[in-house]
Amino acid sequence: MTRPTGTHSAADPMDGPATGATAHPASRPTESAPGPLAATDLLSRHRAVLPDWLALYYDRPIEITHGEGRHVWDGDGNRYLDFFGGILTTMTAHALPEVTKAVSEQAEKIIHSSTLYLDRPMVDLAERIAGLSGIPDARVFFTTSGTEANDTALLLATTYRRSNQILAMRNSYHGRSFSTVSITGNRGWSPTGLSPLQTLYVHGGVRNRGPYAGLTDERFIEACVADLEDLLGHTRVPAALIAEPIQGVGGFTAPPDGLYAAFREVLDRHGILWISDEVQTGWGRTGDHFWGWQAHAENGPPDILTFAKGIGNGMSIGGVVAGADVMNCLDANSISTFGGSPVTMAAGLANLSYLLEHDLQGNARRVGGLLIERLRAIGAGIDSVREVRGRGLMIGIELINPGTGEADPAAASAVLEAAREGGLLIGKGGGHNTSVLRIAPPLSLTVAEAEEGAAIIELALRSA
């Protein structure tokens, strides 16, 4: 379906915060777009030189050529409301002037130097993140991705504790490197069983499935803690527990608030570190909290926190925060050739400043709350919707076959396609089968855009 192109009208200030974006220079009529033949040619070239396992969305994959605010355009000139943000990465807005200006100005000075030299933007951003982390005497190490951040956290934890055993959550995802796929409890994203680590999987990351699903929240936490205690009675002492406060790839599942605080009591007795993987939950996306771990804060912050995605608003930034004793435990030299790049750090500083100054966490709470209630009302009238869950602007819609109650990945793919035809980009994920629609717009989403997206999702659910 081809829709009119061009810039969208400015949002009513009462609908939510404006991004301050001006008309994007590429927002022009469709005749300037490459067209469907060019897209077909690009897909053929992609398949000829890139791996078969490099996933693409849609039966007819699209090339995204430019974006503005909460919208993007494809190579055929079609405009879409973006509810996935490059996998939760475009956190504030597409083409945010404050970020593009910071990148441009820094690039005019110097693009790269490496961590072998003092880097003012890196120190500036590290200071801000250390202060926001909640971790006492925090140190920050920058990487280029969430995968690399989690890989670094595993290096720190195993070195500090002198153990190669790791506790991880079932249904989890932590990256695509050799070490992180080995702690990923999601078969669809773990291509090998070989590992430098011994991984033990714990109950608790998924509230509505498994042996404890029918329990109350209080009893659920008690059962998961008992399971953890029992597991530790059968093994050598692990180095760390790594956990996403809300599981991203796993379909935006989460335990009851307080589970990881209860786990922390057990971990502390055994000297086991807690790594909070905040690659998707950080920077206020959940609305209620700046970090996901703060829903489990009764017994203090994690020992190690990892981050990435949203902080760069599309630039390649990841990182690790830990107390000085843990961060400084390595006894060999190390650097990060591209982590802490002056250009990406400048982008991160501008993006974080915009986020805080415009209270996008508050906007995620307000607009996300409206959106999730709207989607729950829609789902209540559709038999294939098992659950609408989430927090802030991190929302999952789980689909099933109404006749069997089993996960329905074909339905999720069909809704993904129908939403795209309606002018909306969303994601998908899930555990045993990919049957969860993932909704995670930029945090500057307006009320009007939330209503528009919900209406498209409703049509897609009813037509798929």
Radius of gyration: 22 Å
Q: Helix and strand succession? A: HEEEHHHEHEHEHEHEEEHHHEEHEEEH
Backbone shape: globular
End-to-end Cα distance, whole Å, is 16 Å
The total count of helices amounts to 13
Strand content: 15-25%
Structural features, described:
The protein is an alpha/beta fold and 464 residues long. Helices cover 35% and strands 15% of the residues. It is built from 13 helices and 15 strands.
Question: What brief labels describe this structure?
Answer:
single chain, four-stranded mixed sheet, 15% strand, seven-stranded mixed sheet, alpha/beta, globular, 464 residues
Question: How do the strands and helices of this protein lay out in sequence?
Answer:
Elements: H1 36-49, E1 64-68, E2 71-74, E3 79-82, H2 85-88, H3 97-109, H4 120-133, E4 138-143, H5 146-161, E5 165-169, H6 178-181, E6 198-202, H7 217-232, E7 240-243, H8 259-270, E8 273-277, E9 304-307, E10 318-323, H9 324-327, H10 342-357, H11 360-379, E11 385-391, E12 394-399, H12 409-421, E13 424-425, E14 427-429, E15 436-439, H13 447-463
Parallel strand pairs: 3-13, 5-6, 5-7, 7-8, 8-9
Antiparallel strand pairs: 1-2, 2-3, 4-10, 9-10, 11-12, 12-15, 14-15
